[in-house]
Amino acid sequence: MNHVMNFVYEEKADGFGTVGIRPVDPAADVDLIHAWVSEERARFWGMREAGRERVLEIYEYLDSLSTHHAYLIHRDGRPVALFQTYEPEHDPVGECYAVQPGDFGIHLLVGPVSGAPEPGFTEVLLSVFLGWVLAGDPRRRRIVAEPDARNAKAIARLERTGFVRGPEIELPEKRARLMFLGRP
């Protein structure tokens, strides 16, 4: 599964390696994504019980939308994270808060760690991804995230990246904490 030529963005991160971003190819990537989302550590992603075919169906559906996109993030050619973007006004989250012009939503799932955890690993990935998202369209004024309200690690990670807490909201599949990051 070599998608090197399909990267939409690459950045060399000092002391970390090359971070590449490419769109998810649902058929080619379903086994990897299913393995990640079905792990206990991914419980807040909400797909632990989904079978391979259901995961494929979900990502084929996302791939058909112009308002939602899924990306695999690679480090030195190896997939290490799954990011999704969405336009809040075209998503259930948009019914739970006053969407502002320029709001742009993200989801993040870091893949399983191989070897010892690396301090700062997720922050580097998030920094590269957010930089790419903001550089991609100057109309994106504010990044919106809505981690599960019980996911203290994700909330803390977003706060370390500069996000500020918004209210808790009720989504169909979870109680979430809105988090916002304004354009620097």
Please give the structural blueprint:
Elements: E1 9-13, E2 17-23, H1 26-37, H2 52-64, E3 68-75, E4 78-86, E5 103-110, H3 121-136, E6 142-145, H4 152-160, E7 164-171, E8 174-182
Parallel strand pairs: 5-6
Antiparallel strand pairs: 1-2, 2-3, 3-4, 4-5, 6-8, 7-8
Helix pairs in contact: 1-2
Features of this protein?
27% helix, globular, 8-stranded mixed β-sheet, 4 helices, alpha+beta, 8 strands, 184 residues, single chain
Explain this structure to me?
With 184 residues, the chain is of the alpha+beta class. 27% of the residues lie in helices and 32% in strands. An 8-stranded mixed sheet has the order 1-2-3-4-5-6-8-7, sandwiched between helices. Helix 1 packs across helix 2. The longest helix has 16 residues, at 121-136. The radius of gyration is 16 Å and the shape is globular. The mean pLDDT is 92.
State the gist of this model.
The protein is of the alpha+beta class and 184 residues long. It has 4 helices and 8 strands.
